[in-house]
Amino acid sequence: MTLTEHVPQVDTLALEPGDQISESLVRTLPGSAHSSSEVFAAEQEHIFETMWVRALRASELPGPGDFRTVQVGREGIIVSRDRKGRLRAFFNLCRHRGARVCSEGSGSGRRSSQCGHHAWTYDLDGRLIAAPNPHEDARHRSGGVRPARRPRARVAGLRLDLRRRRRTLVRGDGDGCGALSRLGDVESIEHHGVETLQVGQRITYDVKANGKLIVENFMECYHCATIHPELTEVLPEFADGLAAQYVVGHGAEFGEDVQGFTVDGPEGLGRIPGVTDDQDRRYFAVTIRPNVFVNLVPDHVIFHRTYPMGPDRTIVECDWLYLPEVVASGTDLTKSVKLFDLVNRQDFEACEMCQAATDSKKYADGGVLVSSEHHIAEFQSWATAAIA
Amino acid sequence: MTLTEHVPQVDTLALEPGDQISESLVRTLPGSAHSSSEVFAAEQEHIFETMWVRALRASELPGPGDFRTVQVGREGIIVSRDRKGRLRAFFNLCRHRGARVCSEGSGSGRRSSQCGHHAWTYDLDGRLIAAPNPHEDARHRSGGVRPARRPRARVAGLRLDLRRRRRTLVRGDGDGCGALSRLGDVESIEHHGVETLQVGQRITYDVKANGKLIVENFMECYHCATIHPELTEVLPEFADGLAAQYVVGHGAEFGEDVQGFTVDGPEGLGRIPGVTDDQDRRYFAVTIRPNVFVNLVPDHVIFHRTYPMGPDRTIVECDWLYLPEVVASGTDLTKSVKLFDLVNRQDFEACEMCQAATDSKKYADGGVLVSSEHHIAEFQSWATAAIA
Amino acid sequence: MTLTEHVPQVDTLALEPGDQISESLVRTLPGSAHSSSEVFAAEQEHIFETMWVRALRASELPGPGDFRTVQVGREGIIVSRDRKGRLRAFFNLCRHRGARVCSEGSGSGRRSSQCGHHAWTYDLDGRLIAAPNPHEDARHRSGGVRPARRPRARVAGLRLDLRRRRRTLVRGDGDGCGALSRLGDVESIEHHGVETLQVGQRITYDVKANGKLIVENFMECYHCATIHPELTEVLPEFADGLAAQYVVGHGAEFGEDVQGFTVDGPEGLGRIPGVTDDQDRRYFAVTIRPNVFVNLVPDHVIFHRTYPMGPDRTIVECDWLYLPEVVASGTDLTKSVKLFDLVNRQDFEACEMCQAATDSKKYADGGVLVSSEHHIAEFQSWATAAIA
User: Fold this and answer.
1) In the predicted model, what is the mean pLDDT of residues B26-53?
2) Are A147 and B16 a contacting pair at CB < 8 A?
3) Which of B173, B206, B229, C251 has most Cβ atoms within 10 angstroms of its Cβ?
């Protein structure tokens, strides 16, 4: 007997042996697209700081002086309503010596914002209206410093554009900055009246995976049979891994015995009025590039936003939206929330499993997409082109 | 109703609208000066490892064999007293295989230092006096290795200079490496007899901000009304944000009802003998570049040292110094310590608020300094020149 | 009295003063060899991913379908037994979209491995034997993607070679990839029948030091008198720091009163049958480059593997191996394990003390090796040549 024992090959797991793999396989992006700091920085600059991103739901800020701070790319931004009820957005830094003006995540009814460092105070239009006046500072008119040239950025209810060039404001229309329809299209969102719904529950996930991996995972249902037993019980057609990517507007049908979009399928809540009979007992999903994906079921909407924090870390904020009267009534939403919270956790664990391999030399050329995943290649091409 | 709601500009908060801002505004350093790793490394090399830095109070090492380890720039240093009572300083690494010779932070009365790895032993002059002698090592005289060329560094009671070139030893004299007087000058320190006082309390703060931000914040009182309510109650003239930067030697006067430099102003401890009547009931502050700032009140001295650990992290060690008899008596120092501990926490929180913006593209050109902050520009110019 | 007190030199501790240091001193590697990210990456590539490394003990995987995941350089690897009982090794990533196929650290008796993301399933030969078949994927034969060219790597019972070029399989034979004998040679290992022993205890250490520092420390006993009082009590000849590097095959003898290799020397367990009378009551140690070191005593074997995680962090996995009947009997192994667990902790603390200085400018040229450490220079030369 010897100390050593010989072992054959250090192999990559093999693709060739069966007939399961079609010649329609296409390549994914190389592993570095999901692990490189340079790619991440370029995406922050050219995607999240340049394109329309959905910063928040406009209904989160119902009245003048309401505000919320959000991260957009690498910048901290305040979104707020001015006195006329218009949404405004400001970089969250004082023009004096750079302190964050709003340290809180949100607030309401403010007439002004006062920096916590030296009490410089800005009105809801972002104008400096007060500053302590030591010495001669009060005796002179402003003039020492010209305000920085304003970026021609625009904010929409669900979008925030930090680009330099003004562009036509588009709405979820499938262009480079718009929606990528899947399992339904933007019409579905319209019927659900997302802007009128209220947050019943918000859960924030800290995922140790690249933001694109999270979007890509959401875009296909090939994994559903493997990791989502509770979801496929409610949506039996998901068990075959197909979903309905080729039929825009198609929604996945609930199983026959299923009463609602809940764990184990007991009854849900009341149907949202705008939802049509065609849409009832169906599940729709829409991906809106670059950072939103939405699920729509008859009684609620699940609204995800991703905030990329690093090549291997992404914050996902997920809102469960219900009719205002449902939220106001204090109805127990547990069963309703629990299903997709489970799905989220299953998805994010899978994404973390994938992240681990992105810097392996054996994944340098990436993996493959089966035919029911081919639309992911379009997303990857778009992301690649965006930073080219 | 649509899903999106338009929002005007993503603006920077504006400087121009009022008469509060004087034309005397001057620019701060660019944001990168407070966030860049390259600037930080240059400061470590050209400031903290080249100029005089205050390493410790000489009185911390009263007798032969007393020692303390300190961080100076990126180097671990042992400061100790030799048999004749002279202060010495050594790099804290064994010439054999590099282990730290002193693992403890401090100690007293040692006759030698023995490395914990292979027991090489050095006397108080840093000479190797013993090493285990396996084999023929004992049979030869040393000669295999010449000691490294000594840096022409010097250490003073509160200073440690790692520079290569010898220079005239200066004492808090306002040159590039000396004190920057503010709210008093070095005379104040002399009257307080800092070297005779003892540490009543030491608090160490781990601040997530650049070291220069911490010094800059200390150098102005424009923020006092905003963030230091307890301090302005004791020193009412601080409420106008002016302090007395233009009058060297001026100390801020206690409020009429204030009994001592304590939270809410109850009585302090006995006056330090050297403090003159002119200095009584007054607060002085001195910044000594690059890493010390001191507050002096009639009954104690608050002595801060900064240890920059990274572009966005600084350790601040703060000592509350009292007369030896006060420390020996076991007097309750809580009220006395609490005031400036509060001030420190308020200041460091403000510095962390500022750190957040230093890498925003909207702070790339930095902020502005009002006239009562102009002396900060001198500090920034000095820091910039030091690494040029 | 003044605020400052002058201090002479900031010195390096000196080497020259006595006769303790022989002219036979030789230089170690420069400090950067133990602290640089570039050197670390080169070592991962050219040593740990290129040369034979001991991945695990073959006996950890007794039967078909048993597997364990290990880190080799920067790659996650599955080592498993196929149906014929042969050891196999695979990169732990699914060829589909890169998820880790085995998330568990180990398992037994598996017939196949199923990826947790999309259920692609591989047999024990690494062949894809099942994948969900949406749409036309099932209708075509594979062909879209060719498997990556296999690296000509080999795995041995204790070795895993990821190199591209096939090489003669060697066994602990002292060449560049083999054993560096010390305090005994590979014969000692043979007599102990390491492959027949079982793990009685495994302890994993997370050491904040470079992997080479850990190997170098293990290779000399010059430090034993200083940091290992319990070990030198059992092995008195270690107290002189010599060990027996120049006499391959020599084992250090137990002290006269010592009953066993235990703390304070009480009786050990039964002698391993293959151990000869010459080897009885002796301690042998062998370093097997790049990542294993082994201690052999009459009744057990202590087997260390290092997993470098960064320039300043190394995981050390240490197994205490005993006769199967000893492990099966549930005998209390505490006294036996405790001795070398203590030694390990003492060693790793020393390594961490050394790590601290590796990036000091005063250690840029490294330290020195006394004559009883000269063989470390050979190891350092080997490591330097390996990445040249």
Assistant:
1) 89
2) yes
3) C251
Q: How far apart are CA B73 and CA B56, in angstroms?
A: 14
C-alpha distance from residue B206 to each of A5, B262, B306, B309, C219 (Å): 53, 24, 10, 10, 39
Separation CA B89–CA B91 (nearest Å): 7
Place of tokens 């790339």: B364
Neighbours of chain C (3+ CB pairs under 8 A): A, B
Span A179-386: which CATH code? 3.90.380.10
Tokens 């057990």 correspond to: C300
Q: Answer left, alpha or beta for residue B264, where phi above 0 means left and psi between -120 and 50 means alpha.
A: left
Question: Which residues on chain A are in Cβ contact (under 8 Å) with C169?
Answer: 4, 6
> Minimal Cα–Cα distance from A231 to chain C, Å?
15
Quote the mean pLDDT of chain C: 79
Cα separation of the two ends of chain A:
59
What is the nearest CA distance from A327 to chain C, expressed in angstroms? 35
Q: Kindly report the number of other CB atoms within 10 A of residue B250's CB atom.
A: 17
Confidence of residue B188 (pLDDT cuts 50, 70, 90): low
Average pLDDT over chain A, rounded to an integer: 79
Q: What is residue C16's predicted lDDT score, i.e. its pLDDT?
A: 52
Residues of A in contact with B20 (CB under 8 A): 128, 130-131, 133, 137-138, 142
d(C-alpha A351, C-alpha A209), whole Å: 6
Amino acid C8: pLDDT = 41
Q: Which tokens in the block code for residue C132?
A: 């969900």
pLDDT of A229 higher than 80: yes
Q: Is the pLDDT of residue A25 over 50?
A: yes
Nearest to A156 among B6, B15, B20 (CB): B6
pLDDT band, very low/low/confident/very high, at B351 (cuts 50, 70, 90): very high
**Rounded Cα–Cα distance for residues B10 and C244 (Å):** 74
Within 8 A by CB and 6+ apart from C248, the residues are: C181, C182, C184, C185
CB contact under 8 A, A150 and B11: yes
Taking 80 as the threshold, does the pLDDT of residue B5 lie above it? no
Are the CB atoms for B12 and A95 separated by under 8 Å? yes
Distance in angstroms between the alpha carbons of the first and the last residue of chain C: 59
A12-16, A82-86, A287-291: range with highest mean pLDDT: A82-86
CB C238 within 8 A of CB B134: no
Structural element, H or E, at residue A383: helix A374-386
Q: Are the Cβ atoms of B362 and A172 closer than 8 angstroms?
A: no
Q: Which chains lie within 8 Å of chain A at 3 or more CB pairs, if any? A: B, C
Cα gap B194→B305, rounded to integer Å: 14
User: For C242-253, how does the pLDDT look when each residue is reduced to its tens digit (9 = 90+)?
Assistant: 654 445 567 889
Residues of chain C in contact with residue B94, where contact means CB-CB under 8 angstroms, are 13, 357, 367
CB contact under 8 A, C7 and B87: yes
Cα separation of C193 and C324, whole Å?
A: 12
pTM of the model: 0.79
Q: What is the CATH number of domain B55-157?
A: 2.102.10.10
Is C116–A350 a contact, with Cβ atoms under 8 angstroms apart? yes
Q: At how many degrees (to 10) do helices A211-218 and A374-386 cross? A: 150
Q: Do the Cβ atoms of A242 and A360 come closer than 8 Å?
A: no
CA distance A345 to chain B (A): 28
Looking at the complex, report in whole angstroms how far the Cα of residue B7 sits from the nearest Cα belonging to chain A: 4
Query: Three-state SS for A113?
Result: strand
Nearest chain C Cα distance for residue A29, angstroms: 10
Query: Domain spans of chain B?
Result: 55-157, 179-386
Q: A214, A238, A187, A230: which is closest to A340 by C-alpha? A: A230
